[in-house]
Amino acid sequence: MISVHLRRWAFALLLMSFVTPFTAYAHVKWFAAWSFDDSPVTLGDILTPIFLGLAALTVAGLVIAVFIDHRLRDSRLYQRIEGWFDGRREFAPLVLRIGLGMTLVLAWADDRLLTPDLALSHPVWGWIQFGLALLLIFPRATAIAGAGTLGLYVVGIVEHGAFYMLDYFIFVGVGVYLMTVYAKNPRLHSLRIPALYFGVGFSLMWVAIEKIIYPQWGLGVLAANPQLTLGLDANFFLLSAGFVELALGYLLIIGLLERPLAVVITLVFFTTTLVFGKVEVIGHTIIHAALIVFLLEGTSRSLYPAPINIHRTIPWRMGFAAVNFVLLLAALIVPYLLMAQSASGSSLAYLKPLLGVLWRP
C-alpha cells in the first residue's frame, strides 16, 4: 500500500508542476529580439494592483512552504527518501563536473561563451572552454576548472558588462563549488553548498526581474508561442511567471524544500525543452546538473547553515521567509531598474516622486 505521506508529497509536486508557468524557466534573451536600448518600465508601471496582489500571494505561498517543509521533515517516509539520497552524496561532485563539461563543450561547438546568447569574441575563449572540459575528467584538476570557469565569467563581464552577466551568476556558484569541493579545509569544503544554492537562486530571481522590467521581451516570446499562456492574458501570465521564478529562486537561497524543488524545476525544464529545443539544452544543462547536486547533497551545510534555519520555531521561520522576500524583491528591482535606465539612456527623473525624501538631485 502506498503511504499516505508519499501520496501527499507526490500530489504536492504534481500540483506545483501544473501551476508553474512554463515560461518561468525560459530565458527570454535566448528567444526574443531584445536590446538594452529598449526602454524599461517605470516604478509606477510596476507597482500595480496586480503586481501587489501577486506579491502578496507569493508571500502567502512562502509561509505555506515553511509549514510543508516542517511536515515533510516529520514524515518517516520522507526521512527514508532523504536517507537514500544522503547515501549517494559522494556522486554530487561527479554530476556537476559532467554537467559543466557538457555545457562547456556544447558552448564551444556553437561558438558561444558559456551560454547560448554570448557570442565568442575570439576563438581562444572557445578552446579554453574545451580545455576546461577536459580538465573536469580528472578530480585533482577540478579546482583548476572551477577557477577557469570564474575566469570565463570575468571575460563575459569585460565583453558584455556586469549587468548582462548577472543573468548567469550560476557560473560563479558552480566555479566556487568546484574550487572547494575537494578542499581539505573544512570551512572551504563546506562553502560549496551555500555558494551553489545562492548562485542558482540568484540567477533565477534576477532573470525573473527581467520579465518585470522588460515585459516587451517576454511578450514577444509569448506572441510567437501563444499556447504557452494557457488561455490567460499574456501580461498577467508573464508577470505571474516572474513571481513563480522569484519564489523558487528565493526558496533555494534560504534553503527551504531543496530536494522537492529540485525535482519540480528539473521536470519543468525538461518540459520547456520540448517547446524551445536544443537552445535550452545548451543553456539549461548546467542547471540540471546543479539541481541533481541539490537532490544528492540536500541540506548538508555543517558549518554554514541555511538562512531559514536561523530560527527554530515555525512562526519565526514563517516571518523570516515572508519579510526577507519583500526586502530582497525591493533590493533587486531598484538596482535592476537603475541599471536598465542607465543602459538605455533614459531619464531617471520619474524616480523623484516615488523615492520622496531619498531623492537627492
* Category by helix and strand content: mainly alpha
Distance separating the two termini: 69 Å
Determine the oligomeric state from the structure: single chain
What proportion of the residues form beta strands (DSSP E)?
Answer: under 5%
Outline: globular
Number of helices: 17
Summed up, the domain count is 1
- Structural Rg: 20 Å
Compute the number of strand runs: 0
Helix content: over 70%
Entry summary:
The protein has 361 residues and is mostly helical.
Describe the fold and architecture:
Helix 11 crosses helix 12. Helices cover 70% and strands 0% of the residues. With 361 residues, it is mainly alpha-helical. The longest helix is centred in the last third of the chain and has 31 residues. The protein contains 17 helices and no strands. It has one domain.
Keywords:
single chain; mainly alpha; disordered N terminus; 361 residues
Question: What is the secondary structure topology, with strand pairs?
Answer:
Blueprint: H1 4-19, H2 43-46, H3 49-73, H4 76-86, H5 92-109, H6 123-135, H7 142-160, H8 162-165, H9 170-180, H10 186-190, H11 192-213, H12 215-224, H13 234-254, H14 258-276, H15 278-297, H16 314-344, H17 351-355
Helix pairs in contact: 1-14, 3-13, 3-16, 5-6, 5-15, 6-7, 7-9, 9-11, 11-12, 11-13, 11-15, 11-16, 12-13, 14-15
